[in-house]
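Exam revision sheet. Question 4 asks you to relate a sequence to its structure. Input first:
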Amino acid sequence: MADTTYDGCGAEELRALLDVPRVAVYHSVTSTLDVAHVLGEAGAPSGSLVIAERQTAGRGRAGHRWSSDAGMGIWLTMIERPTDPSAVDVLAIRLGLRAAVALEAYTEGAVRLKWPNDLYVGGGKLCGILVETRWREQQIDWVAVGIGVNVRVPRDVERAAALRAGTARVPVLERLVPAIRAAAAARGLLRESELAEYAGRDLAYLQWAAAAR
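Answer key, structure tokens:
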């Protein structure tokens, strides 16, 4: 059952602040993606947001699972209902680009992208993104955009990064949620400007270029 507050803000207050149709706030879930799948199948509108204080089985690529401790980060999933399959094909990259800009306001250094879905600061992972798409009768029904951001450096994790010390989570959501929505609303394949932006943030290329100097 959904809890009532997130850093002192109730679900309805967050809904109005973030300008989304629905917010569900939980203290502990297996994964916000699991909750979002239930809501998506039940017809939740585009922009519906699930936030949890803690995850016991957060999901990553290739079935990877981990626990997300309370107070250590932002763990969320947003439901979107895009209609352009070509845009969904590149949605993870667009999300990374938009999220990098949003989060860079709260980091000590530049945010880089590690293919296909991780954001890094320095040599440490700051954020992970996972997009899961559901189809109905050969049409996209909805996508679940799962994002985890380290607000504090997690314990017992090597090469992790976090937001600047003292960063509050709700202001980060005020930047991050519109970034997610903008990425999901974009249509078509990546534009030239997006490709250029990706090249400027591509961690592997930047590391190669630095080594080649």
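Marking note for examiners. The chain has seven helices and ten strands.
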